[in-house]
Amino acid sequence: MTLHLCNPSAFSSLLLPISTSLLSLTTTPVYNFSASVPAVYRLTAPAISYTNLSFCNVTLSYTHPGQNDEITIEAWLPTSSPNATANSTAPWNSRLLAVGGGGWRAGRFDFSYEGMKGAIGEGYATITTDAGLGFSQTSREWALLSEGNVNLYHLQNLGSVSLGDMGVIGKEITRVFYGKRPEYSYFNGCSQGGRQGLMLSQRYPGLFDGILAGAPAVYWSEAMAGFQWPQVVMKELGKWPYGCEVSAIGEEATRQCDGLDGVVDGIVSDVGGCLNSFDPFEMVGSEIKCAEVEGGTVKITEGAAAVVNKTWHGRETVDGRWVWYGLSPGADLIVNGSGLAATNCTEGKCVGQPASIGKDWFELFIAKSSTFNVANLTHKEFDRFAQASKQEFSSFVETDDSDLTEFRSQGGKMISWHGLIDQLLSPESTERYYRDVSAVLPDIHEFYRHYEVPGLEHCFGGPSGNPTGLLEQLRAWVEEDVVPEASPVEITKPDGKLEARVLCPYPQKAQFDASCTDPTAARCWSCEELPRSQLVT
Ligand SMILES: *[C@@H]1O[C@H](CO)[C@@H](O)[C@H](O)[C@H]1NC(C)=O
Ligand SMILES: *[C@@H]1O[C@H](CO)[C@@H](O)[C@H](O)[C@H]1NC(C)=O
Ligand SMILES: *[C@@H]1O[C@H](CO)[C@@H](O)[C@H](O)[C@H]1NC(C)=O
Ligand SMILES: *[C@@H]1O[C@H](CO)[C@@H](O)[C@H](O)[C@H]1NC(C)=O
Ligand SMILES: *[C@@H]1O[C@H](CO)[C@@H](O)[C@H](O)[C@H]1NC(C)=O
Ligand SMILES: *[C@@H]1O[C@H](CO)[C@@H](O)[C@H](O)[C@H]1NC(C)=O
Ligand SMILES: *[C@@H]1O[C@H](CO)[C@@H](O)[C@H](O)[C@H]1NC(C)=O
Ligand SMILES: *[C@@H]1O[C@H](CO)[C@@H](O)[C@H](O)[C@H]1NC(C)=O
Ligand SMILES: *[C@@H]1O[C@H](CO)[C@@H](O)[C@H](O)[C@H]1NC(C)=O
Questions:
Q1: Residue nearest to atom 13 of ligand 4 (CA)
Q2: Catalytic residue among 160, 426, 458, 487
Q3: I need a labelling partner for 497 at 20 to 30 A (CA). Which of 13, 318, 323, 526 fits?
Q4: Is there a domain that residue 465 lies in?
Q5: Closest Cα to atom 13, ligand 6: which residue?
Q6: d(CA 518, CA 464)
Q7: Domain count across the chain
Q8: What is the pTM of this model?
Q9: How far is the CA of 386 from the centre of ligand 9 (A)?
């Protein structure tokens, strides 16, 4: 095979965007690299394992002069095939696959590294950026320049600018290293990464040919307010239920709504139907097992039912006006003490336990204070905070622009997907975005498709596996004009058995053929456009 030069001098002809200035560049040849990456880390591709892969690790730091930032981009460029033997050929598949971040991270953390291992295993050159935010899980280290002053350049880098840079620089790196730019460029991310994908389609159309946006934090301000909403409800009610009460209501909803779609498999596919048919208040007074209390049992309280009801129905203003979508019945609102409706109970007394992302957002970016406590906001103040979030930061972080005309005309293709039991971000937000785009561009199906994933939690987890066919389907759509239709997925039933299912491009839903005797077989499922249960809200 060709010997590529994995040393800094080989990159001396690298052309960076005029807005940037290179601070440092290191190259590390990596030999005999082995990896075993489960599908959950690849999000939209199957598990992969390999040995004896070699690649060039090019890591560069740059600044936007005057902005006091230092962004690090890390690219891995395959120089041998996986499981390489002496006669392997074509180490690079001529494509770039950029990998997104999660939470407050733009990328360049454990999760994105796993995605990159998967990518090089398939021959992609791959890249990630830290947006200049370092390695921290929270935004506390960088959000404030000083009390009252948000670090707007850092927020702008997270929101958009680092993504454009990554695409441009990534292509330039392959030009220098392999002697040609990628034939096709892709982006794969979930959550913050899903938001990044949408941002790329909206603000940098033409940069990526194909974009995968999982469980995107689209409508950022609504997402942040949604993180805090159950806590606001509890404060307003003056009731902080035990986690076990809230969990028991969700589990019962799953039991009662499971069969609404015609198949009992532990998964609620008909979310709207479940909201209409299952009343959490019917469980008030039921005795349940509860490890959090002495004696081990507790009766479900009115407060628990009210918190669940309001979390499912979504955010309202203090005067009762509905604002935004909630989470689905069956979504885990407690997540072992870190979920959106989590409380912290000691000796029978419970207090709220706000989830960290929304907490950071409201305390640091809206209150602009390192000592503010989001738990102290009244409902009225919270409404005002949610509004201020949009007023001040829409242009930095929002990805709600539904006019994808330019992305479409540049030939871009996009696939979004969202787990229906996402415990953080409402799947209906992504559905809403898809509908917003289709209102502007009725031929949306020609370039953008959305897949709902019943039984999948936020990005991964839950009874459903990941939509592992989507990366390959996106590639075939971009390169061969093969339009993605049904996509395979595997679910784990309550008894532990694995079953095949299909995922369908919205607004289609998977429909079980009742004449088919074997619900375990994917061939018994098809994608049909069915009337959707009207949601209560
Ligand atoms: C290559 O990696 C494998 C697995 O990690 C290891 O067993 C082997 O000794 C390594 N070979 C060389 C030449 O380093
Ligand atoms: C590498 O070889 C192993 C063992 O033969 C195989 O299981 C794996 O699928 C191969 N991986 C790739 C990417 O070819
Ligand atoms: C790539 O290089 C950077 C900078 O030296 C380093 O921090 C990172 O750990 C390297 N990654 C791999 C997989 O070698
Ligand atoms: C590992 O890959 C290299 C090519 O990068 C090849 O020369 C070598 O023979 C391979 N080693 C084994 C054990 O297959
Ligand atoms: C070397 O390449 C030939 C032709 O592509 C292939 O048939 C053979 O299996 C390869 N050998 C090894 C050890 O992979
Ligand atoms: C559940 O919440 C919705 C939306 O806030 C509200 O209209 C309804 O009255 C609530 N149900 C009960 C029984 O309180
Ligand atoms: C739940 O959290 C507790 C305390 O932090 C921990 O000990 C336990 O392992 C966690 N359980 C799960 C299932 O994550
Ligand atoms: C829960 O509250 C106790 C007592 O106030 C405190 O020590 C503990 O750190 C809290 N747990 C969490 C996860 O915040
Ligand atoms: C804010 O909340 C904290 C913790 O719940 C409490 O100790 C403090 O007194 C509250 N401050 C105000 C101004 O209400």
A1: 85
A2: 458
A3: 526
A4: no
A5: 281
A6: 19
A7: 2
A8: 0.95
A9: 20
**Tokens at residue 224, please?**
């942040």
| Listed residues 332, 360, 394: the one ending a domain | 394
Which of the residues 191, 221, 269, 487 is marked catalytic? Answer: 191
Taking each helix axis from N to C terminus, what angle separates 220-237 and 302-313, rounded to the nearest 10 degrees?
160
Per the domain annotation, does 202 fall within a domain?
no
DSSP 491-516: EE-TTS-EEEEEE-BTTEEEEE-TT-
Q: Residue 163 C-alpha to ligand 8 middle, in angstroms?
A: 38
The DSSP letter of residue 187 is: E
**Cis before residue 205, ω within 30 degrees of 0?**
no
CA 141 to centroid of ligand 3, rounded, Å:
23
Say if residue 292 is in the same domain as residue 169: no
Q: Residue 269 catalytic?
A: no
Judge if the beta carbon of residue 34 lies within 6 A of ligand 1.
yes
Note the residue count of the chain: 537
Residue range of the domain that includes 336? 222-394
Element containing residue 263 per DSSP (H, E): none
Are 94 and 242 within one domain? no
Residues 71 and 171 reside in one and the same domain: yes
Distance 7 CA to ligand 5 centre (A): 30
Please check whether residues 248 and 382 belong to one and the same domain.
Answer: yes
- Ligand 8 interacting residues, C-beta cut-off 6 A: 337, 344, 346
Residue 112 designated active-site? no
Are 138 and 237 part of one and the same domain? Answer: no
Q: Where are the alpha helices (DSSP H) in 374-415?
A: 379-397, 405-409
Are residues 308 and 171 part of one domain?
no
Domain end: 132, 161, 182, which one? 182
Q: How far is the CA of 110 from the centre of ligand 3 (A)?
A: 12
Q: Which ligand is nearest to the CA of 109?
A: 3
Residue 144 inside a domain? The answer is yes
**Ligand 2 binding pocket includes 50 (Cβ within 6 Å):** yes
Q: Of the residues 165, 422, 426, 450, which is catalytic? A: 422
In 122-263, which ranges are continuous DSSP H helix?
Answer: 152-156, 162-178, 192-203, 220-237, 243-257
Per-residue pLDDT of the chain in tens (537 residues, 90 and over written 9): 345 789 999 999 999 999 999 999 999 999 999 999 999 999 999 999 999 999 999 999 999 999 999 999 999 999 998 888 876 668 999 999 999 999 999 999 999 999 999 999 999 999 999 999 998 899 999 999 999 999 999 999 999 999 999 999 999 999 999 999 999 999 999 999 999 999 999 999 999 999 999 999 999 999 999 999 999 999 999 999 999 999 999 999 999 999 998 889 999 999 999 999 999 999 999 999 999 998 899 999 999 999 999 999 999 999 999 999 999 999 999 999 999 999 999 988 999 999 999 999 999 999 999 999 999 999 999 999 999 999 999 999 999 999 999 999 999 999 999 999 999 999 999 999 999 999 999 999 999 999 999 999 999 999 999 999 999 999 999 999 999 999 999 999 999 999 999 999 999 999 888 788 776 777 888 999 876 654 433
Q: Atom 12 of ligand 7 has which residue's CA nearest to it?
A: 336
User: Does the annotation count 402 as an active-site position?
Assistant: no
Structure tokens at 494: 């309550």
Cα–Cα distance between 311 and 56 in angstroms, integer? 48
Position 376 in a domain: yes
